[in-house]
Amino acid sequence: MRLRVSRVHSDDEIPTENSGTTFAYAAIIMSQSKSEAMEVCPTDVARAPVELAWEHFTNPSLLGWVDAKLVDAPARPVAVGDRLLFKADFGLRVTWSILAIEPHRQVELDIGLPFGMANRQTTVFSRIDAHSCRITFS
Fold first, then answer.
1. Contact, 82 vs 74, CB < 8 A?
2. Burial class (CB in 10 A: 0-12, 13-18, 19+), 125
3. Sign of CA dihedral 74, 80, 83, 84
4. How many helices (H) and strands (E) does the chain have?
5. Closest CA to 36 of 1, 77, 72
6. What's the whole-model pTM score?
7. Please, what sign has the CA dihedral across residues 80, 66, 130, 7?
8. For residues 23 and 26, what is the distance between their CA atoms, to the nearest angstrom?
9. So where are the chain's domains?
10. Which residues contact 7 (CB under 8 A, 6 or more apart)?
């Protein structure tokens, strides 16, 4: 049995104090099988053109928003096959391996997390207008 919940809020319904953007969850999927699974696809609206949001996600020199120190990355925007290494608290390591890129639209990556955990993530950038875009992590 699977349960799917979809809900997205507009900016005027749930404004945040700091960013003025709205956090929304696009989908939650839970399975009641022997191995419980949960999938969450957070979505946010950025008050920035899609090109600027894209640059802040794909240019290693602009990854200061990541809550870990970038240790190794190419000195250019990422490309398929690149691997980025981050060092988090307590010396824990996180890696991003770039699997696919569709410029200004989506990035698919394998994220290596501590303790052998992994996440295959597709980040989608959707233009709303000239001054804002929607970013979805799935």
1. yes
2. buried
3. positive
4. 1, 9
5. 1
6. 0.70
7. positive
8. 10
9. 1-45, 48-138
10. 24, 25, 26
Which CATH architecture group holds 48-138? 2-Layer Sandwich (3.30)
pLDDT at 138: 85
Task: Report the distance separating Cα 69 and Cα 89, nearest Å.
Answer: 9
Q: How far apart are the first and last CA of the chain?
A: 21
> How far apart (Å, rounded) are the C-alpha atoms in residues 127 and 113?
30
Segment 113-131, tens digit of pLDDT: 999 999 999 999 999 999 9
Query: 64 φ, ψ to 5°?
Result: -65, -20
Q: What is the rounded CA–CA span in Å between residue 133 and residue 90?
A: 35
Two structure tokens written together for 78: 């990422």
Amino acid code (one letter) for 83: R
94: exposed, middle or buried (Cβ count in 10 Å: 0-12, 13-18, 19+): buried
- Residue 72 near residue 84, CB atoms below 8 Å: yes
